[in-house]
């Protein structure tokens, strides 16, 4: 029987991390194309994405540390 994957599964964590990085890269590319965007709001969006990316990396690395013990 195939075990259903849980949202905290490593594969899902990697997919979330990849999605967040893709979103941040897309936003940065759009800023280059549309330079008149409000820089304050855009900076806030990038900061939030950075925090989310850091959180996902932290979850993945802490999981790796607990698996290696």
Give the arrangement of secondary structure elements.
Blueprint: H1 10-33, H2 39-68
Q: Which features does this protein show?
A:
single chain; 2 helices; mainly alpha
Task: Give a description of the structure.
The chain has 69 residues and is mainly alpha-helical. It has one domain. The chain is built from 2 helices and no strands. Helix 1 (10-33) packs antiparallel against helix 2. The longest helix is centred in the C-terminal third of the chain and has 30 residues, at 39-68. It is elongated, with a radius of gyration of 16 Å. The chain starts with 9 loop residues before the first helix and ends with a helix. The model has no long low-confidence stretch (mean pLDDT 83).
Q: How many domains in all?
A: 1
Instruction: Categorize the overall geometry.
Output: elongated
Query: What value does the Rg take, in angstroms?
Result: 16 Å
What can be said about the biggest beta sheet?
Answer: none
Which stretches of 5+ consecutive residues score pLDDT under 50?
none
Task: Briefly note the structural class of the backbone.
Answer: mainly alpha
Provide the succession of SSEs.
Answer: HH
Short description:
This protein is mainly alpha-helical. It contains two helices and no strands.
């Amino acid at each position: 029987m195939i075990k259903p994957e849980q949202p905290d599964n490593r594969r899902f964590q990697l997919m979330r991390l990849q999605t967040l990085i893709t979103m941040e890269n897309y936003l940065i590319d759009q800023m280059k194309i549309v330079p008149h965007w409000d820089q304050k709001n855009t900076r806030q969006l990038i900061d939030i994405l950075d925090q989310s990316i850091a959180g996902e990396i932290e979850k993945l690395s802490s999981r790796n540390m607990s698996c290696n013990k």
